[in-house]
Amino acid sequence: KGFISGGDTGGLFGYVSWSNVINNSYVQAEVTGRGATGGILGLGWHVNIDRCYFTGTVHSSGSSFGPIVGLVGEGIQVFFRNTYYDRDRAGFMGGRTTEEMTYPYAENTYVNWDFENTWVEDVYMFHNDGYPYLSWQTFHFEFIPPASLSAAPDDNVVILNWQNPPDSLRTLLGYNVFRDDEQINDELLTVTEYHDTDVINKVTYSYYVTARYDDGESGPSNRVFATPYSSSSEPELIHFGTKLLGNYPNPFNPETKISFYLDKGGKVKLEVFTIRGQKIATLLDDRLEQGEHSVVWTPRTIRGSDLSSGVYLYRLQTGDYDRTRKMLYLK
Fold it and tell me: CA–CA separation, 118 vs 109, rounded Å?
């Protein structure tokens, strides 16, 4: 987040002059100032800005402010090369839309950038909301936990299943399973299923799973509750409230399954949108009972034609729940 300054204020620099270079940088912040205020640079004199972008907001009580530079010295040049800003977020004309700046990019975005040694494409939109990030930042991202944990109780056993975490750019070694916040597996698991037989029928247990990487361990997956039962009783499975569980696979082609859980029955609406918010399809608009549900979506327009590759949004709405998530379609 930016700050209020009495002088020149920028997301990276307040004042830079005489043949200095700003390159391979980006800012995602709220920048606020009283003087020359810019998303990257406040006041510039003879400056080259190359391979940079800004996705935040700029506020100034003065008259000199902009998404990249607040003010250029009189009679002085500031050179912009391969430099962009998100006009949807920054609120300035020009620039690029969010869709053009996030993966997969428009053809004229991020030209001449080094995506082998300097920048990394956020293909799965888990690290930087789809914007490219600097390769050295890979080591600062959170460890991604496993996805979509489910529990199937049976007679004297609870069967757990989960999905591999999305690509975290780290080396995944395996998984640990926790029951009532205590680890229960003796050795690291390399499969995405676990049978917990050390249980008592009609006792409710809580579970979550973590992913172990070569240099650390993730936080917990979604938590589920299960009550094993004897052959003379009915199974019971309790989830942790209404939840949009996600879609699998992701990225996907030609179709993906969107799953969600309802803690009570009621009216449910599930819709798909473009990244710009244009509705493509209504997958559900009906009353459903409590429990886990899923819908398979094949990318089509309302008129039935194929959709292009890209990021799409899906939104689940109930009486007291509203959640939107992203998915990536790759042809």
Answer: 16
Per the document, the length of the chain is 331
Q: Token pair of 291, please? A: 């429990």
Angle at 104 between CA 99 and CA 105, to 5 degrees: 65
Rounded Cα–Cα distance for residues 123 and 168 (Å): 11
Sequential pLDDT tens for the chain (331 residues): 444 445 788 889 888 877 688 999 999 988 988 888 999 998 888 889 999 999 999 988 877 899 999 887 665 677 889 999 999 988 898 999 998 999 889 888 999 999 988 998 887 676 788 899 998 887 666 678 888 889 988 888 999 999 888 765 678 899 999 998 899 999 999 999 999 999 888 888 889 999 998 878 887 888 888 888 766 555 544 445 788 878 877 778 888 889 888 888 899 999 998 887 788 889 999 999 988 889 999 987 666 677 888 888 999 999 888 888 888 888 6
In this prediction the pTM is 0.50
